Amino acid sequence: MKKTLFLFLVIFSSSLFATSYSNFIDAQLQNYYKMNEHNISEEEIQQVLQDENRLYNNVLTTLLVDRNKYIKEFAKYEQKIFSLQKIITINKRAGNSTAVLRDEVRLKSYQILRSQGKMLKDILYALNKPDLESFENQLTTLVNQNQAEILKIDDTNYKEYLSWTADSNVVVDLQANVKEYYALLELNRDIIVYLYRLKEKMYGLNKYEKYHLIEVVYTLDSLEFFQPVNELLEKYGLDVTKLFMMIVLSIFVYTLRKVALFALRNIMLHIEYLKEYSERIVVKLIKPIDSLFIVININLLIYLYNNFSSIDYLTRGFNIIYSFYATYILYIIVNRVATIKLRSIDTTSKNIKKDIINVSIKIINFVILIIGILLALYFAGVDLTTVLSGLGIGGFALAFAAKDTISNFFGTVSILFSDVFSQGDWIAVDNKEGVVVEIGLRVTTLRTFDNALIAIPNGTFASKDVKNWNKRKVGRRIKMNIGVKYSSKSDDIKRAVAQIKEMLLAHPDIATPNTKYEYKKEDMTKLVSKDDLEGVKTNLLVYLDQFSASSIDILIYCFSKSVMWEDWLKTKEDVMHKIMKILEENSLEFAFPSLSVYQEK
Q1: Does residue 80 lie in a domain region?
Q2: Is the pTM of this model over 0.70?
Q3: Domain Mechanosensitive ion channel transmembrane helices 2/3 spans what residues (predicted)?
């Protein structure tokens, strides 16, 4: 029996030691062994370093092309660690101390690779951080975790075993394992060095993957012809892929410029009021639009060069330029239309005073200019409150004398043009709540829920927070904390949490991330979340939340599809009944505030 067990161990151990690592690890180990040869020449060292650098650069693209395959490769080390632990236990019982050493060294090699794989897997997920700085912070955290794990693994000096006389296969395997173990420690350090060196490229490559361009990058990087070019361009922060994308982007922006002018002309032709002015407006807009697209192209090229990351001061500068162009284009359109329209007014109506018209146009242009200046100052980081407060003593005196009238007038304008609320909306402002009856020139009237009528000056809305309950289309919040007794079993709670989440996901009246909603504003001219703009909430959270004084609390946070109060109440009631049933089925009881008193004997 012992002989059979021994043969099994020999065969099984041989299969473990014969197993190679991933292609990348194997190649890097070979480079490590070459670098540690005593007779290696300087030319060979340079060649090894070039091969190593190429391997690290290529593996980044390979990882992002097929993340799941890479993660599975490192999952295999768990099984190997488990198997080796069993073999070590058996060898210890059999008194095979050298075999135990051999297996312990190999076990630590697998532990190094497991820790390394976990770090790289987490880094792959961290690449989705919103900006490069956040990714760098997360990278540092993950590297520190890896180093802490490596310190626990590397707690024994095995180099003394390299001087043993290789009088048996077990000793030969032990020495090979020791060499490999120290090579893997060195490799782990090299990987961390390259992670920091290539962090910007990693972040950029992940953006390519996000934009479904990673296959193009992979194809270009895999061509041997481009490898020397990449090495030449690397010191300038470029590579063949980035240059190719820049050229494609420039061609796309140039084409888009032509399309934009063509679309603008067609849009104006379909707008009845602007139809007769379209050609003259487009002729005036050609030069500013051409230069605007050049600026856009430069902005996008810098963004691409910086690995899809914005540079704060450049972004602010480009925003100032865009505000200038927006102001200038608006000025051209308004003045072209006004100039042409004035001619028809002059010939068709003799009752309109030209002075009023001229002053009106000047006022409009002055307002456009002020808007442009304020936009530029805002994007430059200037505090607009300070600027507006220093407009002059005369303006201050005039504003102070008629501050309530002006405040209410501009409050009315703000309400009408900002679409904060409309008639019939349920709003809350300044501790007053009700349904909007009418938006007047000076005041807005609300009908409260106890049937009183409130008149609120429109100037109040400029300085107070307005909560509009009607500005939501999908999702009225259901939030509850369910307390179960401390005597509940962990498995029962875990099962109940899972079942509650499944129930909510399947509930026809609960909004989930899969809930379909037809957006009214598909094409928006501003970069905002469509969900937040139109009032769509689909968050669904069910988690064990906290250990409170008298209960173990389960947090349930979700939204009903309907925002109507009665529908929301019905949905919440149905959810509560189903939760009660799930708790009953899992032998869980609701907790209630309690106090235990112990009498000392």
Answers
A1: yes
A2: no
A3: 362-403
